[in-house]
Design goal:
Blueprint: H1 2-23, H2 25-32, H3 49-72, H4 77-102, H5 107-128
Helix pairs in contact: 1-3, 1-5, 2-5, 3-5, 4-5
Length: 131
């Protein structure tokens, strides 16, 4: 049951990320400094590799969150949601900020990517408690 919970939670967060970044595609590409063509798409097309890697990483994050939640006794949807949001807000988003600050990236990029870290982890946390 644990593996199924991890896979479903990872898929839910990955799908949320797809919707999130589709909605913020232009501001994200501008903040990330990605060159766009006349249609607003990344120049040179795109590789499927980032999508595959992000799916793999969602599984890793969901797996570790399940391990932490199991040990901490997190078992309700509310506790999973808050615990996940806390992991995103206090672990992942600060790390994103550090990386972006050293790379001299716009703070807007940190806000966009950090926002997904919080929402994605909150989704994983909530879904994990449903299994």
């Amino acid at each position: 049951m644990g593996i199924l919970a991890v896979l479903v939670a990872a898929a839910a967060s990955w799908i949320l990320g797809a919707a999130y970044y589709m909605g913020l595609a232009r501001p994200w590409m501008e903040a990330a400094g990605i060159a766009m063509d006349e249609n607003g798409r990344p120049k040179g097309g795109g590789s499927p590799l980032p999508f595959a890697l992000s799916a793999l990483c969602m599984i890793l994050v969901a797996g570790m969150m399940r391990h932490i939640f199991h040990g901490a006794g997190v078992s309700t949807v509310g506790a999973g949601l808050i615990g996940g949001a806390g992991i995103g807000l206090f672990f992942i988003a600060p790390w994103i900020m550090i990386n972006n600050a050293y790379a001299m990236r716009p703070f807007r990029l940190t806000l966009i990517d950090g926002g997904y870290a919080v929402a994605g982890c909150a989704t994983i946390g909530a879904v994990l408690t449903l299994f």
